[in-house]
Each structure stands twice: as C-alpha cells, then as structure tokens.
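WARN no homologs supplied; continuing
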Amino acid sequence: MDKEDKKQEYITVGELSAGFSENIMEPTDDLVGRQIMLNYKFGKKARINCADPEVLEWETEDQGRKDKFICSYRTIMPRKNIYFVDFIVSYGDSKSVSVILDVEQSIATVVTGIMPTPEEAMIPLIVRAEKRMPLTSVQAIFEHAAIDGPFTETMPRHEKTTDLVGERFQWVYSSKDAYEHIYLNEQAYTWHCIAGSEKGLADTDRCFFYKLGEKLYLFVWIEKIIPTVGVVLEDLEAMRSYGKIFGREGYDMNGRIINFAAGSYGKLLNRTEYDLSRTEK
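OK structure emitted
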C-alpha cells in the first residue's frame, strides 16, 4: 500500500454531530399546548401532547396494547402548515420517531428509526448477502395517518417519488462540513464527503423518497457501516435541508443513543439521464 494512502476512518455518529448542527432551522413553539390525534390504518392510534417547549407526551394504542412516553422533543416548521416533530421513544432508547404533520391536508407521515441489537449489527455483509437480508441492520418504518379525523382509503397521503432520481446535490452543513449526494434510483443513493472530518469517504446506502409538496421532499437514509438513520426534509425552493441524524454515540452497540438536529444549504450540481437507445454506426 502506498504510504500516502489514507486509512478509511468511518467516524461515529457522536463525532459526526459536532459539525452538522451549524445550519439548522430554529425550533418553533407553534404546537405548544396542542394535542394532536393520529389515526392510522387498521385502527392504530397515537396522541401527541406538546406540553411545553421541551416536553412531549406520546401515547399509542394498537390492538389493545397501550404505551405512553414522556420525551424531550424538537419541532420545526420548514413551510407554512408543515411541521417536523422529532423525539426518541421506547424502552432502552433504541427508537426514534419523526412525524411530518401536514396540517393543510390533515395527514401525517410517521418515520420510526430502529437501532439494531449488538447481535444484528455484527452480522457480516457477506452473510447478509448470502441470506438475502438487507445489507444494513438499521430499520426505517413508514406509516401514514390522518390528523384529528378517521383514516380512510380515499384520503391523500405523502407518496413515494422518483422526482430526485438522477440528481446530484452538494449539501453544506457547516463552515467545514460538506457532502455530495447522488440519487441513483428510488432505493439507493451515494454520499461523498467533500469537506470535513470524513473527507474522501463515500458509500452507497439504502434510501427512501416521499413527496410532501411542490419541490418539498422527505429523504430518509439508513447506513450499513456505522448504524445510522437520517431523516431530512429537502426544500428545493429554498435549497435547504432540515432534519435529524440518529444512532449510537460510539462504536459500542450497547452504548448511548444520540439524536441531533441537522441542516444544510444545497446546490444542484447536475442531473444524469440515461439514453439506452442503440446508436447506428
């Protein structure tokens, strides 16, 4: 190996948090004092009670089982009547919940990120490939709900989209941290650190896209090297992204959970379109 070759140093989520919060959106207290009922398909229910600017109550009822949690939380409003509410929930702090409240349409999309157990995290990639398992041990679960009304099959919902497929963006998170994203298809994207603590590192990971409105998208990714869930709203009118990153603070899969706000300024670099037609000689 060339002596000048740099070791591949995948930093922890805790180390990553140092540079990702410089360009975040300030929280809003619009929801303080409000109770919001979410009604899901098949009868599941959830209640959000924003008791004060720092404490939220999250109650769920599903098939006779009831759970209640009191959590710290953060709410931002990237556009009028669109709220992003984020918090950690569950025994053992292994889950995060991100709720996109679309007040105009009275609908919500709920993203639950689940960290793997130590045993799940240690399954080698070759074993996962052999057993047809997802390459990442992290889970992201998406659910749709009605706000303060019944769930119906005819109600609108935030739909999956391919709008961003083929686009290449630069996202600047701080004065020293910048990444490019290449949205390959509806299930995979490549990230590449062009400045900051991970400079030179790149990988391709599982991702999900949902359209929330005109030039407004929900982008979620789950990483396979360092177990991570990223949930952001990408506003291509403002060329900003707002959201959070969730994972273990260090390499210990029994260690402390960290869930921090992230934000960036974006720039469209180019768009790739494929031409598979044969060219005559």
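The two ends are 43 Å apart (CA to CA).
OK
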